[in-house]
Request: fold
Amino acid sequence: MAERGARLLLSLTFLLLLLFTTAAKSTDKGSVARHFTPFWFLVEPADILAVRGSPAVLNCSAYSDLAPRVEWKKDGTFLNLASDDRRQLLPDGSLLLTSVVHSKHNKPDEGYYQCVATVDSLGTINSRVARLTVAGLPRFNSQPEALMVYQGDSVVLSCDVNLDLVPFTRWELNKEPLDLDERIISLPSGALVISNVNESDAGLYRCIVEIAATVKASDEAKVEVLAETGMPRQLQFLRPPVLSTKVQGQDMLMPCVATGYPPPRIQWMFNDKLIDSSGNRSKIIGGGSLLILNVTDEDTGMYTCLAGNENDTLQASAELMVQVPPQFIKRPTNIYAHESMDIVFECEVSGVPSPSVKWVKNGDAVIPSDYFKIINEYNLQVLGLVKSDEGFYQCMAENDARNMQASAQLIILEHDVATPTTPSTLLISATNDHVAQAAGSGPTPSAPRDVVASLVSTRFIKLTWRLPAEPHGDNITYTVYYKPEGSSRERIENTSRPGELQVTIQSLMPETKYVFRVVAHNKNGLGESSTPLKVSTQPEVQVPGPSPNLRAFATSPTSITVTWDMPLSGNGEIQNYKLYYMEKGMGNEQFVDVGSLSYTINGLKKYAEYSFRVVAHNKHGLGVSTEDVVARTFSDVPSAPPQNLTLEVRNSKSIMVQWQPPPPGTHNGQITGYKIRYRKGLRKSDTTESTGGIQLFQLIEGLERGTEYSFRVAAMTVNGTGPVTEWVSAETFESDLDESRVPDKPSSLHVRPLVTSIVVSWTPPENQDIVVRGYAIGYGIGSPHAQTIKVDYKQRYYTIENLDPSSHYVITLKAFNNMGEGEPVYESAVTRPLSDPLDPEVDVYDYFNAPYTPVPDPTPMLPPVGVQATVLSHDTIKVTWADNSLPKNQKITDARYYTVRWKTNIPANTKYKTSNTTNLVHMVTGLKPNTLYEFSVMVTKGRRSSTWSMTAHGTTFETIPNSPPKDVTVVSKEGKPRIIIINWQPPSEANGKITGYIIYYSTDVNAEVHDWVIEPVVGNRLTHQIQDLTLDTPYYFKIQARNSKGMGPMSEAVQFRTPKAESSDKMPNDQASGSSVKPGGRHSGDDFATSVGKPNLSGNPTSMGENNIPMIVIVIVSVGAFTIIVVVVVAVICTYRTTSKQKKKRAACKSTNGSHKYKASSKDLKPPDLWIHHERLELKPIDKSPEPNPVMTDTPIPRTSQDITPVDSSLENSIHQRRNSYRGHESEDSISALAGRRGMRPKMMMPFDAQPPQQSVRNTPSTEPLSIPGQSICSVEHPDPDTGTGFLSTSSEEETNRNPPTAHVRPSHPLKSFAVPNSSGTSFESPVLPSTPLLAQAGTTPQLHSVKTASIGTLGRTRSPMPVTVPSAPDIPETSKMLEEVESNYEPDELTEEMAHLEGLMKDLNTITTA
Reply:
């Protein structure tokens, strides 16, 4: 019983386990995708060189989770290794050839081998293809011969063998192995080169080829070494360079062996650039051969060997071609997909030559068909996947250097298996939506109803249907499955959005029957399929076939004739032919309509290659195009001269002439050489020399010492000689310069820092007897060794660009020649900060006058889309677009054309330009440089046209300015005749942003450009100041603009003569009448000169004539004497009026005020004040103002604009002022820096309202305002230090509401003033104004104001008063009358002393008047 129970329990357990396993398998099958299987080659076979009779091994090893089976192919056929005695498969998969068989008529082992690895039920992969080459029998193509060679010369011993035998070749001297070094080398051909031969090199030489056990020796050749005789020997090549092809990474030895006496010097050029043979990768060995290690693609080009000595120069050229093996830029990736999907395997490769790509699936080549297509040159597209498409796909890339492979796996999932969330897959746009989701548990839709073809064409069908009867949900999407009838490969097309009930199937074949079915799917999965619908596409329109026997041949340098025959399948009468032609590489195809079977196209470019094709046209439209044929127009003489002709004086008897070829497009053929003409001085007869090939220089020797020669060069083709360059002159040295030592240091170095650049200028070394080949500029932040730039020896300035702002740079300059670099000079500079103000460059585009858009027809065509403008050059932009009304391949098969229009928005009223084309690309030429253009495209077909497309914009590149700066003017700086200011305007055709200007000036307008003095100016400046010019000398000025592309033309020379003498800097700034009086009463002629643009500061329109000068002096002196007497009397009265200090002050101010009122009411003129300059003891009278309403004279106060704040202008009219003018002379020392910059000081009036009586202005700092109310101020004005002009102001006040008196301060010089001395005051201290005596006049105000008013203006003009804060120290009871820093009042002895001093001055005045 227990046993039966145990059996029953075991059975139940087994049953449950079986059910669980089955459910798990079902779940895995329905929801989990298979993983990609790792499968690749660890080792792939490589090319080998085998030896006959020796073993050889081709390595191969593959890796996979399952053990792969390895097989081998030879020349594309599988090898049967089981029955092969000589070939064995090693355990790791390598192939062993036990004994290589090779003979003249039997070469079974030589060929191409490939390793094939297979994993059953998974797939197959192929390795790269390896070549096995068998070395041939030792055979000499040439053998060494006996030679006699001079000591120090070079010798070549031939031993040419096949290239596969070179690795087995060696040399023996006297039957002993010969060691090779940099003097003795072996060439790639096997020849031996010995350079700089010496006596030890004499002997018997032979070449040995040793392969395995086979040894073969050449004949022995005896080399004899002769002593050098010193007699000149002709220069010749023993072994010139030869064409060489190398694979990237190999070493290249380019032979070049020359002989002659004097011994030649060997140099190499690469594409017209001299090679530095001292580098790490390239060096000259064997006396002249060039060795380049580890060559790269950049080493491809033309190499020229230059051999020269004092008697002759030779050159020979050869090309090096470097092959780059294929490299995968993008490898194919593994892909998950469902059946009926379209997929793309991407594969992008690079290499030189450009690799070819083929695809392999499971070891077999993929043949392009309707379902397997090569797109975008390398990618593989598989349409309508089926289960048999699963496996491994390989991209095989191959060129002449090597072949490579990369593989990827494709897994086809079941329909109920979800695609992984991050698949390595690329699906085309039509199937991006078809990613299966895990099926839900609910019902799926029924079949869509009423599937019909609503539109059928030759290459597309439009299907429509109705909603399924049972959709079972919202957001129903649909998938259309279609295939040609009878095919098992079904493709899919998805609707673009949920709920859409139509789809258009494109890219179908004409006159073909297709089977369609539609499936709806909801969130639960795919539903039922509709009943299959069979629809046939319409047949293709019967258009003509291609025209056979298309031929093109040149008839002249500018014309080509094209002929063809009628199409074999015309499908009706041929109406005409369209002949399309295009210059190779340009992409701008043009066409002409031709009614016959031949046509001659004229106006083509000379020696240019063109492609031609013909399309026949019948009533159905354009037919099938022919294949392109190519023809080249005949060559002609060059249409432009060579460029950049330069001369370099080598010594006293030779000049090196160098040039560049004519511009591209003007060669008109292959340049066969250049013709050099030169002459001495201005003679009409000249001498001609010619060069061959691509030589771009020529050393002209045998010239005379110290003689000027002129040269010009012309290019030659087989057709003749082209135009010549302009004459370029150079003068040979009087004596040969020394190049046995390095140059001295440059004599000067100057730097001018800008924000992101530094302009460096210099002068050459003082010792001109040493050759200077150029200059080396080093610079860096903190160190000058960060970067180095070398410039030509003629250059005298350089702009270092791309620097950091606000950075400290150290700059060094060294002159150098062939001996090395000389002693450096150093300079440092700090670049300016970005905050420095620069004129902003604003590009303004006025978008006005919107272009007219034609009204389309009722059924317009769709406009082109995706318009793009690609800038190609400064005058060319390529415009491309797409046409949605064309098939996906965008191939035009009907008679439509496109109109491209373009314009620039500056000026705004610019008209459109248009051009027609039948392609989807158009090249717009003849544009302006650095200009923004807008482009739009319209398509026209018959009478129907589309609207204009959306616009695309492109800005052409910059080019050098085509015009010079304009409106160049030169003026002399006011008061400084040695300084001139030059102004200009930018060029009319700047062709880009102007980055700088170069100002040239010289005293000789016919001097060479390099002899003119230059001054660089930044691009945002349109004026510049040039200093230290010579007086009374004519100068000539030119300006040249530059942008990022180079320098433009120079402006015409502008002449300017500097003044004959320097004008006096002692001209007063404040003049009452436009003239000035010097001490002594005599006028200077310079004082009457007025600079251009300087305002008249006098306020009077006329100047005083010279005839009135004596009378003026007498009147002024008389009035001055009377004023002194009055001053003395008033001073005595004011001193002894009161004993109390406060009473003295009040009495003094009142007395002064009363005196002034009397004088103001009197009809007599007020006696002029007399200022005494205590430093120079000059007498400076003051004229009375001629104005009916005199105004207080403006006075300069040395404050900044921040110290002055404006107030109400109505205060101006409330101030009753009086002005006395004075004109005098002052020394140049006293002119402040501000006056020197602006030409005049700002003037200021300071009414001191509600201030206590004052005596002096001290220089003691104080921050307190004046604070003694109810008291008035007595003030005296001080002279202007810049102009020497002094002023005295009086102001009468009787009531408290009167205007306050105005104090005038001249702070720059310690001048002492004498006025009506009957007042006293209290001193105040100012932190701004220097110590200056100030005599005030009496007046009262009701209240105290801490902010004072001031007026800024020039003499003779009234300005609105402005407040000025005048700090004071009111608590100090000091007084001041005439002297600075004195006690409260004068003692009697001091007054007596002053009176005596005044009497002395009066005597001096009388003496002057009498004289």
Remarks:
- Residues 2-31 form the longest helix (30 residues).
- The CA atoms of residues 359 and 395 lie 5 Å apart.
- The chain has a mean pLDDT of 75.
- The chain is about 10% helix and 35% strand.
